[in-house]
Design goal:
This protein is an alpha/beta fold. It has 19 helices and 20 strands. It has a five-stranded mixed beta sheet. A five-stranded parallel beta sheet has the order 8-7-9-6-10, with helices on both faces. The longest helix has 15 residues. It is elongated, with a radius of gyration of 30 Å. Bound molecules: S-adenosyl-L-homocysteine. GO terms for molecular function: methyltransferase activity.
């Protein structure tokens, strides 16, 4: 047992707007030093909700791999503290931020922490950036409060960690599907029912409201994704089963990736006592496609137009590549109040490669109360009502709309004459690659080359890179290759 595993300290933090991470780190290091404690003992950071977007504090929480809680001024003002300040009250509406936040975060909601629970009163530090940071430290109140003597002893001798297997929690990343109960999987419902704590974006929490009685609910805003993952790990380390809910599938622009990133940073490995389960759900592209017909029957891809975390040139290059390669595309996060031009740029890039009358379906709030479906075309799509709850499906060059259904052919018509009772077309065989499949195409290419067409002409004709054509021509079509294909 080493002090490194004793995650019991709660740090209350206050700081000026724009305080550098380095200043916060110095203040924290000094405060911990006064207690003779290591940063590994820190379980949670806490501050006032005015600071919920303070970059230094958020970076500090990430760096320490710990949760960060933000409290409203009124909640902080209600906590008796040793060092209230009139100046702090004037600026924030509470006489104490760091001391009160440390005490609040340390105490279970039904055990309001007494002021004596602070093990370090407000420590102030002015950094090289000229900004002030304050740190106060409390110890987390355990379910059975230790005697004062035991508490004092614990200050220097960390308590042994409980048996890992008996207290290990679990993180469940639950994809709840598009938003109607009927389209949520049985396992997703069960996972939410099993959970002690449910964390998610407010809208998703509302969608599963009927399952939540008696559970701890942590509602977070869209921009608090990492914070959500940190809260989940924190709760799981305390032995809780935590359901982190995402709409659609948790692995599609959802919480699965950020959660693993936070877990890896915290040193988590798959044999850690904290288990992770990802519960798949129908993503928006599955739901929206099902409502409009069968648009994804051939190769498709998803692109998010959100440039909050992805540079626009990256998004634009992907749009250009898939438009050129004739994928059916599902555009996620197509437009918001502030991001209105991205969809116009996407249209511009697509029109360079696709016909203006390419079918487009715009689906809003699929399987939710305000569901809306609109069929339009590539050149008209930006005139439609598009928002954050919309997915835009753009067809490929073969996609068509008939009787209000958007369909992308699977390719049967290339091989079978559907109007002649499904007979195979001339030169095609059932169960075999198309005559224009790889081997047939290689024969054509060899023949064209033998007729005297040079590599660049062939590259232009087949719309493929010249070096690819060259290396393909250099490799003869072997008998074994033909044979194995015949046997396939
Ligand atoms: N994890 C989610 C995607 C989250 S990104 C999933 O797998 O579906 C958020 C984007 O998803 C929205 O901007 C919208 O483009 C799409 N979306 C989510 N739910 C939707 C719904 N019910 N109807 C239409 N689009 C939806």
């Amino acid at each position: 047992m080493t002090p490194q595993t004793d995650h019991t300290l709660v740090l209350g933090l206050g700081c000026d707007r724009g305080t550098a991470l380095a200043t916060l780190q110095e203040a924290v290091a000094q405060a911990l030093q006064q207690l003779g404690a290591s940063v590994n003992a820190v379980a949670t950071l806490a501050s006032i909700d005015l600071k919920a977007d303070e970059p230094g504090l958020l970076s500090l929480a990430l760096q320490l791999n710990c949760a960060i809680h933000f409290y409203p001024a009124a909640a902080l003002a209600a906590v008796p503290v040793p060092n209230p300040s009139a100046t702090v009250l004037r600026h924030t509406g509470t006489p104490s931020v760091s001391e009160a936040a440390a005490l609040l975060a340390a105490g279970a909601p039904d055990h309001p922490a007494p002021p004596t629970a602070l093990c370090l009163e407000k420590h102030k530090w002015r950094g090289a950036d000229g900004k002030n940071a304050t740190v106060s430290i409390a110890r987390r109140i355990s379910p059975a409060p230790p005697t004062p003597a035991a508490r004092k002893a614990r200050m220097t001798t960390p308590s042994p960690i409980p048996d890992a297997a008996s207290t290990a929690g679990k993180i469940m990343l639950v994809g709840i599907g598009p938003g109607s109960e009927a389209h949520m999987t049985a396992r997703a419902r069960q996972a939410i029912q099993e959970a002690d704590t449910v964390i998610g974006y407010v809208t998703y929490i509302k969608l599963v409201a009927d399952l939540l009685e008696g559970k701890e609910i942590i509602r977070k805003s869209m921009t608090e994704e990492l914070d959500r993952a940190v809260s989940a790990l924190d709760a799981a380390r305390q032995g809780k089963k935590v359901a982190l809910i995402s709409s659609g599938d948790a692995g599609v622009y959802g919480m699965a990736g950020p959660t693993y990133e936070v877990l890896f940073q915290a040193g988590w490995t798959p044999d850690d006592p904290v288990q992770v389960e990802i519960i798949p759900g129908a993503s928006a592209l599955n739901s929206c496609a099902a409502l409009v017909g069968a648009p994804l029957t051939h190769d498709f891809c998803a692109i998010s137009l959100s440039d909050l975390l992805t540079p626009w040139p990256t998004i634009a290059r992907r749009l250009d590549a898939v438009a050129m390669a004739d994928f059916v595309v599902a555009l996620y996060n197509p437009k918001s109040g502030r991001r209105t031009r991205q969809i116009v740029e996407a249209q511009r890039l697509f029109l360079r490669h696709r016909r203006p009358d390419t079918p487009v379906a715009i689906v809003k709030s699929a399987y939710r109360r305000r569901e809306q479906i609109l069929f339009t075309t590539l050149d008209q799509m930006t005139e439609a009502d598009i928002g954050m709850l919309t997915t835009v499906l753009i067809g490929n060059s073969n996609t068509f709309v008939r009787h209000g259904l958007m369909v992308t052919p699977r390719g049967y018509a290339n091989k079978y004459d559907l109007e002649q009772g499904g007979d195979t077309r001339d030169g095609e065989k059932r169960g075999r690659s198309l005559s224009t499949g790889l081997l047939g195409w290689l024969d054509t290419l060899q023949a064209e080359h033998a007729e005297g067409l040079d590599i660049d002409t062939l590259a232009a004709r087949h719309r493929l890179p010249a070096d690819y054509i060259r290396s393909t021509l250099m490799e003869p079509v072997t008998a074994t290759a033909v044979e194995s294909e015949e046997n396939a």
